[in-house]
Amino acid sequence: MAALTWGRLVKRKMAADSASASASASAPVLFSLLARSRRCHATVGTSKEDEDTHAHSTSPSILGPDLPDIWSSLPTSPPRPIPIPIPIPIPMPPAPPTIIDGKSIAQEIRSHISKHVINLKNSYDKVPGLAVILVGHRRDSQSYVRYKIKACNEVGITSFLAQLPHSCSEDEVIDSVTRFNEDPSVHGILVQLPLPQHMDEERILGAVSLHKDVDGFHPLNVGNLALRGRQPLFIPCAAKACLQLLLRHQIDLVGKHAVVIGRSKVVGLPTSLLLQRHYSTVSIVHAFTHRPEEITREADIVISAAGVANLVRGSWLKRGVVVIDVGTNPIEDPDSEHGYRLTGDVHFDEAVKVASAITPVPGGVGPVTIAMLLSNTLDAAKEACRSSV
Ligand SMILES: Nc1nc(=O)c2c([nH]1)NC[C@@H]1CN(c3ccc(C(=O)N[C@@H](CCC(=O)O)C(=O)O)cc3)C=[N+]21
């Protein structure tokens, strides 16, 4: 059998697509698609109209535009070399990298949410409520839960906390979830992860009502995120935070190579799905990947969520790369207030010399993740208003 060349495959695909797409797959079409998507990106989360017409957390901007697949044609013959005059090299110092300020972006989002919370109270006499279930006494989980409750208080969201001992049974956690599912003053439920080893995480997360799943971990929400043309009710907060940071800094995603390090349900998996919905070419690097540094070095965008302090060295990164560091790894530090400090997955001091933009830890993705949780809770409360009238 004659081997199918890449060019033939592309031509076949183009022939199939041309039935649905009236335009041919010429460069101008591709450019107009790119321009369309750029216009979409430019309006993300900033326009009032966008906020109001798509009050839902899964507004098209965060999910990306829904464009048809039109493959650009590959050149049939190698391009003829054009003589280029040799420029005289002028040494240019590299531009200093943008340090992406998650703290101030989170502050901006929170003040926007506060206004919506007040409107909801005034118009519907409804106050959004978030319930957090914390099992066990992990120091880091306790801190994260504290941040979440503090952030709720700041924007006027009511918070409920169920604290259960490490030794409690799986059914006791499910009972707690069920109580919050039935409570009309609770609009969002978050089960803090990780749960103790003896518990079936999927069973517990599956018990959270789909309409209160502000973490976006319910299988139906994950499935709808994975399927183009579908809209999940909620997108996981950390993944949404990564996209917020990229879109707010107008980082082009279409056709760009994004390497996601880690494949967790909380960050890696949903972020890779979301990036695909924005037309990035996504590679997922994980603990079993051979030569992760070589794959990562190819990336235009690196999103690291491995949970390993300083895993990503400067030598793993291409010059000009955009780095989003989701890692929050506690490192023993007797000099700091709580006996530990947080470090990202990325060796910041090395990466900052190579990257064009980078998030710090702390003060990068973390605060925006919490702002996204508030935003999901607000959306859940708005949806509850809609379905009760
Ligand atoms: N059901 C569930 N949902 C989660 O979203 C979830 C979870 N479980 N388990 C753990 C991870 C981790 N996570 C963080 C959120 C905010 C910060 C955050 O705000 N970090 C601050 C830390 C400030 C400091 O401690 O100094 C910062 O990076 O600036 C960190 C980590 C959410 N997670």
Fold and architecture overview:
Among the domains are: 114-209, Leucine Dehydrogenase, chain A, domain 1 (Rossmann fold, 3-Layer(aba) Sandwich), CATH 3.40.50; 236-367, Rossmann fold, CATH 3.40.50.720. The protein has 389 residues and is an alpha/beta fold. It has helices at residues 6-20, 27-42, 48-53, 60-63, 102-124, 139-155, 170-182, 201-206, 219-226, 237-248, 268-277, 292-296, 348-351, 365-388, and strands spanning 98-99, 129-135, 158-164, 188-191, 257-261, 281-285, 301-304, 322-325, 329-332, 340-343, 357-358. The chain is globular. The N and C termini lie far apart (64 Å). The chain binds 5,10-Methenyltetrahydrofolate.
Briefly, what is this?
This protein has 389 residues and is an alpha/beta fold. Helix content is 42%, strand content 12%. The strands form 3 sheets. Strands 1-11-8-7-5-6 form a 6-stranded parallel β-sheet. A 3-stranded parallel β-sheet has the order 3-2-4, sandwiched between helices.
Topology:
Blueprint: H1 6-20, H2 27-42, H3 48-53, H4 60-63, E1 98-99, H5 102-124, E2 129-135, H6 139-155, E3 158-164, H7 170-182, E4 188-191, H8 201-206, H9 219-226, H10 237-248, E5 257-261, H11 268-277, E6 281-285, H12 292-296, E7 301-304, E8 322-325, E9 329-332, E10 340-343, H13 348-351, E11 357-358, H14 365-388
Bound molecules: 5,10-Methenyltetrahydrofolate (GUE).
5,10-Methenyltetrahydrofolate binds next to helix 6, strand 4, helix 10 and helix 14.
